[in-house]
């Protein structure tokens, strides 16, 4: 077996694992890896900030289902990656981050940019490891991908000391390949018990979490729901697991990203089958209200997720796809397919009577009107990315999704600035797909330098900015304190001029201030983005004090008249 540079072996592992794009910034302590990457067929995209690189790798991973890769040098490059690692861990996204490091002998001497990044990253990674010997390189890289994919997916960090990178190892790529990832089904006993609970329930619901999408189980979910005629709800991370135009779609329950009729349907249910859902607090709200009067079956690939938030009536460990398939097999064995019943009809009634308005013609523009135009203009194959703030909550409440991996959102960590680099990663993975980043003005400014990357590499996507010139979510949270403190973002005549800002990057942009102009601007941006092969911004100026319908429990967001809504369409 030939001896080759160990970083060349590492790059061959990346290629065999299906990596076609990496996002990073070269530096002195990572140059041996870059020397090996230079002769690879893998595309390198030079980002402007390492956090942006992690989010781009995150977007690439979410939309492909494969492991995303980002690279940085030593010291602050690694610490800049921590937010992206936390985001990936929170949302079960498999990424591998590579960091350069000072030589091993210098680590204890406070060498330039030498920091113990493994210990810093360990709490936000599935595995953080430092390469100690050149001979370990191919095997550590191979295991990194295996760990990232296995069980509940998540991030891995590999720290690469400079002297180790310069070493050689024995490696033959023809003798190596990806390690198998176990996709295990639950035991038949709890599956049988779960089916009995569903068959005896009068008003059952299936709650599809992000695990259904990660597990590629959307077809199995739909088959089970249709066979038993059980309405299906999705969590925010599960949007796209079940088509929202399906007769059995039962909306979303939650205290922020929710549909009013979804909350009502959940509160009327008596049994909930939750698959790949972690019962996040923005979904459940007050647990007493959430749990009262209903039994729970919790299916998850990670055993420690079961019982973490509350103890279910039945827990079941298994991968979403074989778990749902097994439930369907047992349901078929128990009896014929069920016809649509009163419960499905009741969900339809709630949908018809408790929907929110989105047809506002007001100036300034009301945010629901923006999402009405987005829904009407973009097709079902469009991929949306959105981050955190009032615009994310409005997006969750109003945007419709029909296919998996088409609605990407940083759910638990919620880092501002995620949308632009994530959209860039999505477009790199699917160049022929329309990609739209829905962002707030404040979030856009966090990592807006990544627009320069998309412009340099001709990565086209559309940014729809919902601009209220406020820290809108914080302003709304301050209302009970009777204060409006430190949230105003505007200065001069109109705050940051994002149109001029985009022009400075060499990218087109347009500002919209009237609702009738939104659709035309979306059409222009979509066409112009693909024509010029650039990111294009549509900045929609919305009313400054618009609030989202939110509460502390599910019943707080169902008990008010659906039409007409108050001027600010607030639930309270």
Automatic annotation (TrEMBL):
Keyword Transcription regulation: no
Enzyme class: lyase
InterPro entries given in the database record: DHS-like_NAD/FAD-binding_dom, THDP-binding, Thiamin_PyroP_enz_cen_dom, Thiamin_PyroP_enz_TPP-bd_dom, TPP_enz, TPP_enzyme_TPP-bd
Domain Thiamine pyrophosphate enzyme central: 191-327
EC number: 4.1.1.47
Domain Thiamine pyrophosphate enzyme TPP-binding: 388-539
Domain (Thiamine pyrophosphate enzyme N-terminal TPP-binding) ranges: 8-119
SUPFAM superfamilies recorded: DHS-like NAD/FAD-binding domain, Thiamin diphosphate-binding fold (THDP-binding)
Keyword Glycoprotein tagged: no
A Pfam entry, by short name: TPP_enzyme_C
One Gene Ontology molecular-function label: tartronate-semialdehyde synthase activity
Keywords recorded for this protein, A-Z: Lyase, Thiamine pyrophosphate
PANTHER family listed in its UniProt record: GLYOXYLATE CARBOLIGASE, THIAMINE PYROPHOSPHATE ENZYMES
Entry similarity comment: Belongs to the TPP enzyme family.
NCBIfam families xref list: PRK11269.1
Name of the protein in question: Glyoxylate carboligase
